[in-house]
Amino acid sequence: MFQVLNLADVTDDLYMLCAERLVDRLQFRGWIKKSIKIQEATLSKFPQNVTLLKQYGLTFLILGQNERAEKIFKQVLKRDPENGHTLALYGFVLKISSENRLEESIDFLYKGVKSRDPQAQDARFYFHLGDALQRLDRTSEAYDVYEQGVRKGFFISKYQRSLYNVPNLKSRPWWSYAETTYEKYLKMFENEWKIIRDEALSLLDENRSQFKLEDERLTNKGDWRQFTLFVKGRKVAENCLRAPRTCSLASKIRPAATCTRGQIKFSLMRPGTKVWPHCGPTNCRLRAHLGLVVPSSSASAGRHSPRIRVANETRTWKSGRFIIFDDSFEHEVWYDDNNDNDNENSDQNLAPKFRLVLIVDFWHPDLTPEQISSLDPI
């Protein structure tokens, strides 16, 4: 196909066909930068083709070069202001680039999804439009968007909005130990919870910076950090050297240790933290939180225990016990605390200054071994 593009007498139709096929194959193989050269050569030959220009912008979006993608989508809209797919793409890139541009992103995402362009009818656009609305406290509008997504078949329900799903898996926000079918594994963790807690606390004493800030822009305010032990079914060797007993135990629990669509990690949250409502990416896992350090409520000290809402039910953690939920359902976390009380004798000063849990993801119990082996990691 390279040779065809260099022929002196190649027709425009054949050139375009070969260029599109070549870009598709190069990007499929991960050779994104090579594909850019083909796109640029094609654009120089067909400079008025807005579809080519839009695809060029999409390539930079794939590369994570959002500013470059934004500029290109803006050029497309100057030439074709009613291009529904580009309106949605432009709104999407505004939304993921900055919290300060949510209003602007909503305008473009709305225009895109309301257009008749079939390429704008994509679950991701409805997902991010609703999320932007929620972050601006326009909650009822957000749920209207999610309900539209349900009617179009993009989401399982207005609360369960994961994008990488296996059909017909049992769907409920909260799970009991017995319902998971993993009760014996959960008890294995609980029996060792103090050892697990002490390993996590030693990491904090050793060097708090080992807990990395949450990096998915899910934190509304405050301080939320993680220390990952397993990811995509693989042990993080360097971190497991620092928490050997926890990793040794986790390695024995195959539905968690082999979960290529999940993680095992310590999660640290400090007072004053609020996590945006959000959904996990897949319905293929259940998420279990083992309480390690859980501050209690104290009305006199102005302290509130951390809480988690999944769908329409709110619960809290207990030290040494699991709570289990399907994180493909919308969930959010609050850890409100009034730290203004300086009375040295107050129970506030005796209370822990953080919430610490072990997060363990398990394969959804309805998945067959054949289904599990066919799933791409997330």
Automatic annotation (TrEMBL):
Keywords from the named record: TPR repeat
A GO cellular-component term linked to this record: endoplasmic reticulum
Pfam families reported for this sequence: Asp_Arg_Hydrox, TPR_8
Chain positions of TPR repeats: 50-83
Location of the Aspartyl/asparaginy/proline hydroxylase domain: 190-365
InterPro entries hit by this protein: Asp/Arg/Pro-Hydrxlase, ASPH, IPNS-like_sf, TPR-like_helical_dom_sf, TPR_rpt
Organism domain of life: Eukaryota
GO MF term set: peptidyl-aspartic acid 3-dioxygenase activity
PANTHER family named in the record: ASPARTYL BETA-HYDROXYLASE, ISOFORM L (PTHR12366:SF29), ASPARTYL/ASPARAGINYL BETA-HYDROXYLASE (PTHR12366)
Family from the record: Belongs to the aspartyl/asparaginyl beta-hydroxylase family.
Identification of the protein by name: Aspartyl/asparaginy/proline hydroxylase domain-containing protein
